[in-house]
Amino acid sequence: MSETPVSSPAAEFSAAQAVAAGTDFAELKLSADGLFWVEFRPADGACRIWHWQQQQARCLTPDGFSVRSRVYEYGGGSFCLGGDGVVFVNESDQQLYTQPLDGAPPRALTARSDCRYGDVQWHDGKVLAVEECHGEQVEHRLVAFAQGAREVLAEGADFYAAPTVSSDGQRLAWIEWDRPAQPWTVTRLMCRLRDSHGRWGASECIAAADESLQQPRFDHESRLYCLSDRNGFWQPWGEVDGRWQALPAELADHAAAPWQMGASTWLAAGPRDYLATWFVDGVGQLGLRDADGHVVQYASAYTRFRSLAADDAHIYAIAASPISPPAVIRIGRASHEVSVLAGGAEVLPAGRISLPQPLCYPSAGALAHGFFYPAAASDGPTPLVVFIHGGPTSACYPVLDPRIQFWTQRGFAVADLNYRGSTGYGRDYRQALHLQWGVSDVEDACAVVEHLGARGLIDPSKAFVRGGSAGGYTTLCALAFSQVFRAGASLYGVSDPLSLAKATHKFEGDYLDWLIGDPQQDAERYRQRTPLLHAARIQVPVIFFQGELDAVVVPEQTRSMLTALQANGIEAEGHFYPEERHGFRKAVNLADALEREWKFYCRVLRQ
Questions:
Q1: Which residue segments constitute the domains of the chain, with CATH numbers given?
Q2: Helices 440-454, 470-481: inter-axial angle, 10-degree rounding
Q3: Which residue of 183, 236, 368, 600 is most buried, as measured by CB atoms within 10 A?
Q4: End-to-end distance of the chain based on CA atoms, in angstroms?
């Protein structure tokens, strides 16, 4: 019998429109010269620095340049303000460039073709950065450049992040960690002091319990602060009354997992007062906490905040809401008035947008979280697409995602999951994925179908699952080890964890040991959780999308899984994009993948 439960796309939100609405922003920087940010536009896949001053914004980055770091493959901290302009990392060669604000062309600051740079900072005529050198082994250091000279600030640890110098120039702080830890499991907060001759002294460890630390900050009196999850959530700690202690804070995560460098989700102001964003049931809040513990909240219409900056009169942030895409906003400290400086353009009329409904549902004796988006104009139970985010130590947020609206406009409901292991719900929830990858995340993906089906919100016989990167692994495991889903889509997803461990980059080189176990000692566990070895158990159609330049999940993984399914007679198709890396960036490819995935599911439903 033919089934046609999805609406015609004739007058609906197209894949091209969904992709075009994917403009995003990052890395707000504020100085006397104005406000600066990085803007990504899918039309050409480039990232450019924009400068906002005197009520106008102009693009600083000339053609031929794109501002993006690839340190740790995920980058971040791609530019800073200093000298007479900006210093940035050029995407194509990963070198540092300086560019004045007067319109003169960028000039190369470094010429080390074997090195990449990220987490760029400026202090007193010097550019500080994380340096990633690719030789026989990949090595990381903290370095500084001044007038062509290179100075090593810290080396010996496996990884570094967040170099920052106190305003008086007497203290240098940073985050470091060693394998097999990840930055969201165990890190150290380090510091060096200048001696009387102006030289940096020995490194001192300020904090290093069984905790993850991120985003060190100095206040105007050179006291050091940092976010730590020692008490169960990423919350502010600092040097107060002569000792290292927790600051009064909401019982919530004040940051997401630091996959990328350069995050700014809190700003220290004094001994106990700070500006911060935090999560309540996955929803972002923004507030200023004073020394007495009083909290003044701002911009309550928004549900996610990033890249905080502030001056005496205003607070600045990159923010998004369930009805508006990312925007650069300015908030009056006294008036609370919100002004949109860039972005935030209407994607769909508010009345047509499917709004997120918080999910908290039982799964294998635990609770899992996420957000449910009903299908538009539905008269009864509808098909469901379960979105599995990447990471897997990452998160989804209740903000306008054009991809989700693409599906709901076509009669599909969407469940966007923060399965166990996601961030935003505390350390214990995040750690729940330890040695459980391919089990608890799959249980949560299957349980949400039962949960929504029991409430008559979706038709559980028409459920699909899709995910990118680590989300692709969960997708393939769900298809192999359950009979819940009608079909699935893997976007640059992991199909063979052992092969991934051998081929992946240093930053994630030990991640699988934490997620699954030691490849030698736990070999049987790997065999049990490797979709490629259980391809015969997948009895439903699968569509694959893969970038040929992917250095995280190499293309051979996807080709092997695709070939195995096709050899078993399963309907499977693969689409490979020659110029894409890990995560697609070009508008034409993003739209093509979205359209092909939708048509694939429609064919499955008609079978």
A1: 357-606 (3.40.50.1820)
A2: 70
A3: 368
A4: 8
Task: Work out the average pLDDT over 233-242.
Answer: 94
Q: Give the distance from CA 72 to its chain's centroid.
A: 13
Alpha carbon separation from 388 to 4, 108, 385, 544, 565 (Å, rounded): 25, 40, 10, 15, 21
Tens digits of per-residue pLDDT, 85-117?
Answer: 999 999 999 999 999 999 899 999 999 999 999
Distance CA 594, CA 588 (A): 10
pLDDT digits (tens, 9 = 90+) for 248-302: 999 999 999 999 999 999 999 877 799 999 999 999 999 999 888 899 999 999 9
Look up tokens 């985003």; give the residue.
Answer: 215
pLDDT at position 480 is: 98
Q: What is the token pair recorded at 10? A: 């004739």
- The two tokens of residue 325 are 């895409």
Average pLDDT, the chain: 94
* Cα→Cα distances 310→30, 113, 228, 270, 299, Å: 8, 36, 22, 14, 14
Structure-token pair, residue 149: 């000279």
- Strand order from edge to edge, sheet including 24-31: 24-31, 34-41, 46-53, 56-59
Asked if residue 70 lies in contact with residue 120, where contact means CB atoms within 8 angstroms, the answer is no
Q: Which residues pair with 605 in a beta bridge?
A: none
Show Cβ contacts of residue 109 under 8 Å, excluding neighbours closer than 6 positions. 87, 95, 96, 97, 98, 127, 145, 148
User: What pTM does this model have?
Assistant: 0.93
C-alpha–C-alpha distance, residues 368 and 389, integer Å: 14
CA angle 498, 76, 164 (to 5 degrees): 120
Structure-token pair, residue 97: 């460039």
Structure-block tokens of residue 604: 């499955």
